[in-house]
Amino acid sequence: MYDVNKIRSDFPILSRTVNDKPLVYLDNGASAQKPQVVIDAISHAYSHEYSNVHRGLHYLSNLATDNYESVRGIIAKFLNAGDEDEIVFTSGTTEGINLVAYGWAMPNFEPGDEIILSVMEHHANIVPWHFLRERQGVVIKWVDVDPSGALDPQAVLDAITPKTRLIAVTHVSNVLGTVVDVKAITAGAHAKGVPVLVDGSQAVVHMPVDVADIGCDFYAITGHKLYGPSGSGAIYIKKSRMAQMRPFLGGGDMIREVTKDNVIYNDAPMKFEAGTPGIVQTIGLGVALNYMMGIGMENIAAHEASLRDYTVERLAGLNWVQVQGTTPDKAAIFSITLDGAGHAHDISTILDKKGVAVRAGQHCCGPLMQHLGQTATCRASFGMYNTKAEVDTLIEALELAHDLFA
Ligand code: PMP
C-alpha cells in the first residue's frame, strides 16, 4: 500500500505554510524537496565524516572516499547499468551533456556532421550542440512533436542520413510530460550505427529506468530533481563510448601522473571527474536514491499516474484551460494557459497567494515554445508526495485566477 501521508511526513518542508496557506508544492519539475534522511545524511557527513576524497591516507579521508564512491554502485543499480565504472559523477544533467559534447563529440565530429534533436529538448540538451554548430560546423536537425506532444520514433529515425553522428533526445519532456520511446529510437539508431544520448532528468524521477534495456550510449540524470541535493548528478556512459572520449576538465583527481612535459590520465570514470567533487552532495544523492528504491519506482509511477489521471479529469471540467501535451501515458506534468486570463506569470502569482507553487515561463525550452506558439506557460509538476487534495487546491486557485482576469 502506497502511504502518501507517511511519505509526506518524511519531507519536513511540506508541513510549512506559504502566504498563510498550507504549501502545495507543484514545482517538482524544477526541483524536488528533500526527505529528512537526505537532510540528516548531509548534516552527518559534515558533522562527523567529512574530508576530501581519494587523496588522503588518513581515516576520515578513507571514510569519506568510501561513502562517496559507494554512490556509484547505487546509481548503477538505480539505472540498471551493468558496471558502476560506467557511471560518471557530475554536478547535474547540464554538466553531463556538456561532458559528452566536449569529451566525445568535439574530438570526433567533422564539419557537416549531423546531430538530431527533438523540438522539445531542454536548453541543457540544445546549447552544448549549438557550441558544436558554431565552433565546428556541425549541423543540428530538428524533429517536431505532433499536436498531442508525442514524438514519433520513426520520425526521428527518418531524419537519419549518412552524416548523422548522434541522436540526443529527452526521455520525458519537462514541459509536456510526454514519454519518449527511447528504446525504439535506440534500436533503430543503432541499426544504422548512430549513437543515442538520452536526457533522463525528468524520467528517472517518475518511472523505473533501465539503461541496459533501453540500450542507449549516454543517459544523464540530475540529483536535485531526484529528492537529492543540488550540485549532484551523474551520466551513464557505455564503456565503448568512454573509450572514445577525451577528458573535458583537467585538474586534480583525473590524473595518474603529471610532469613538466607529460600527463598520464587516471582510468575512467575518474578520468572525467577533475577537481574536488561535490562530495556531500553525491553522498546525499545516494541516500535519496535508496529512499526512492525503498518506496519502489513502480509504486511511485503508479501513484503519480493516478494523480495525472485525476488532474486530467479535473482540468477537463474547466473549458477555459488549455493543456499543452495530451498524450495519455504522460508524466504528471501539466503546462497550461488560460483563455483571456492574464499572463502565466500573473496566474502563478495568484496561485502562490493560495500556497500553490508552480512555475511560469519558457521552462528552458525555447524551441518548443516557438513550436507551440506560446510565450510562456504555467507548469504544475507533481512528485511522489503530492495528493489528490492538492489537485483540488490547484483547481480552486485556477478558478480564482480565472475569475479575477475574466
Ligand atoms: N533536461 C531536462 C529535461 C530538465 O528538466 C532539466 C532541469 N530543468 C535539465 C535538463 C537540466 O538539469 P540541471 O539544471 O539540473 O543540470
Automatic annotation (TrEMBL):
BP GO annotations: cysteine metabolic process
Keywords, ordered alphabetically: Pyridoxal phosphate, Transferase
The Aminotransferase class V domain, residue ranges: 24-394
Protein name per Swiss-Prot or TrEMBL: Cysteine desulfurase
One of the record's GO molecular function terms: pyridoxal phosphate binding
Cofactor(s) required, per the database record: pyridoxal 5'-phosphate
InterPro entries registered for this protein in UniProt: Aminotrans_V_dom, Aminotrans_V_PyrdxlP_BS, Cys_dSase_SufS, Cysteine_dSase, PyrdxlP-dep_Trfase, PyrdxlP-dep_Trfase_major, PyrdxlP-dep_Trfase_small
PANTHER family according to UniProt: CYSTEINE DESULFURASE (PTHR43586), CYSTEINE DESULFURASE 1, CHLOROPLASTIC (PTHR43586:SF8)
Function noted in UniProt: Catalyzes the removal of elemental sulfur and selenium atoms from L-cysteine, L-cystine, L-selenocysteine, and L-selenocystine to produce L-alanine.
E.C. number: 2.8.1.7
